[in-house]
Amino acid sequence: MKRVAxxxxxxxxxxxxxxxxxxxxxxxxxxxxxxxxxxxxxLLVGDQMVQLVDLPGIYDMHGFSDDEKVVTTFxxxxxxxxxxxxxxxxxLDRQLNFxxxxxxxxxxxxxxxxxxDEAQKLGIHVDAKGLSAxxxxxxxxxxxxxxxxxxxxxxxxxxxxNATSPSRPxxxxxxxxxxxxxxxxxxxxxxxxxxxxxxxxxxxxxxxGLPIFFAVMLLVFQGVFAIGKPLQDAxxxxxxxxxTLLLEPWMATWPPVIQGLLLDGLYNGLxxxxxxxxxxxxxxxxxxxxxxxxxxxxxxYLMDALMSRFGLDGRSFVMLLMGFGCNVPALMGTRVIRSKxxxxxxxxxxxxxxxSARMQxxxxxxxxxxxxxxxxxxxxSLYVMSLLMAMLTSVLxxxxxxxxxxxxxxxxxxxxxxxxxxxxxxxxxxxxxxxRASRFIVIGVLLVWVLTNFPIGVNAxxxxxxxxxxxxxxxxxxxxxxxxxxxxxxxxxxxVAKEIVIGSLAVIHGxxxxxxxDTITSHLSWIQAYSFMLFVLIYTPCVSTIATIRNxxxxxxxxxxxxxxxxxxxxxxxxxxxxxxxxxxxA
Amino acid sequence: xxxxxxxxxxxxxxRTLEGLRVGESARIVALNVEADLSKRFSALGLRPGNWVRVxxxxxxxxxxxxRIGTTELIxxxxxxxxxxxxx
Lengths: 587, 87
Fold this sequence. Notes:
The complex is a heterodimer of chains A (587) and B (87).
Chain A: E1 2-8, H1 14-22, E2 27-29, E3 38-45, E4 48-54, H2 66-77, E5 82-88, H3 96-103, E6 109-114, H4 116-121, E7 125-126, H5 128-135, E8 139-141, H6 153-162, H7 174-184, E9 185-186, H8 194-203, H9 209-251, H10 256-274, H11 277-293, H12 295-308, H13 314-323, H14 327-333, H15 340-349, H16 356-369, H17 375-397, E10 408-410, H18 419-453, H19 466-478, H20 485-494, H21 499-509, H22 513-523, H23 526-538, H24 543-553, H25 556-586
Parallel strand pairs in A: 1-4, 1-5, 5-6, 6-8
Antiparallel strand pairs in A: 2-3, 3-4, 7-9
Helix pairs in contact in A: 3-7, 5-7, 9-10, 9-11, 10-18, 10-21, 11-16, 11-18, 12-13, 13-14, 14-24, 15-17, 16-22, 16-23, 17-23, 18-21, 19-20, 20-21, 23-25, 24-25
Chain B: E1 15-16, E2 25-31, H1 35-43, E3 51-57, E4 64-68, E5 71-75, H2 77-80, E6 83-85
């Protein structure tokens, strides 16, 4: 099968084009000799199936960064039949050197001039035919986001792939490339995005910029809550009805152990976790919209001065924000940071980001123990705690992991995500959840059921069960934090994945939905619950995070540090909170 | 386009991007940074011969918001100090 690689500078719309071409069927895969995983998918070009690979975005073909090494290693070790090179049509002047470098590779090239919609708005005119003739390279002018001009791409790819003797580009000297672009591209002298300029005047204001940013974030969280909570309740109701109306009558004649395992173990556990899916998807969609508009680069600009005092920079802050969705992609996103010190420091603080899986736990406990007016503020306090812990860690470790990287970041114009992009993101989140569910959550909730129901004959979840004994064993460490035996079990399993925490509580108590909420309310004080939430917030997020840190750093020592340090902080913070709050309530 | 630079012996007389005020434009003459960073600067439009304009500057000594042609970017003052401008 022939292989086609997508290449381009960062922010040229590579993933948008990749998604546009392949739908949502991409697979992440390992490549021999490469240290990172690359996205690839099968694509039908004319009458032949080809493999399309998405290479990391790079600025230079001869650079020394990790991403640049990945690209050069890939191109020298994997046979590639066609390089599809993306260019941002509205910023061609700064990409000419890259264009020249790409044309000197011994691989057939096809240029995709992307973002033609933005270029048109700026009044930029491109003579694609003339340029193509002068360079000896086929060129497609298109917008991957809106689909304009997409119909030329596959035929153009097919033509190059089927050519018996591919024509060599005329790329012997750089001045020829510059001359060709100068002749065929006309840029008006005063080209700027009017809307972006007026928005930036407000959103990047020296005094109001930061308050506006925090207000926007608060609004996003409030919005997720306001829309997501009713959806979550509805899902929980449907799943509960499904149990009582369908599953229970159907399984009535089955042996009690099997019934217990399937209904109280698997179904209760999974459905409690599943009821949170609408909330999580909504959260990712909202965060995705914020990301796609280009506001995150503005956040980096606004926060950099503050972050530099903690040994971090604006990009670290953006990664922390991304971590609010899921820590794993945020950790991988630190690859753009070239200073090892800064990259390690950022990776040490990202796991404190309150990810969506932890949000599930908090939403559940907050709904059970706080009033509806208190709820958003309690959740907000946890987000503040999350940032505080990250900053504390950063201050303590900044002299060990020193930042010596330059801070330079592209500031894209504001863009509005299309409905298609938003829907795709939502779908990818659902898929991601199903993937995790099949790996960790099913095994986790089943294991919890076994531990709480064995040895045979014990009352489910009682002190005599295996789980109860584990809880007893841990009691000296966790009871000073107000964390009960049941919650201890949940914490132990939460180490694997935070989605299991609520699922395992459902299994331990043998209840789901409103009944589970009522049981929790009658068992716990708000102080105990908040102490538990603090612990869940700060200690290890999940096994995937640890595996990612290990993968990205190849350092066992650093991985151990990133597990042990948060565990110690979690214990101290919960201890101080629980003892102080208890003291004041008594007084 | 050459990205090589001549280390300047009397750097005090040289105008750098850090000193450029909001709203002002100037032509870049040299990048006093190491080769790898110079490649990245060039790829984002910061290279000798180009005109750069300061759109705004973040408070508390934060980064500068720049425009070169149709590209906008943010750069810390520390890095801006190593970009020499035509007088």
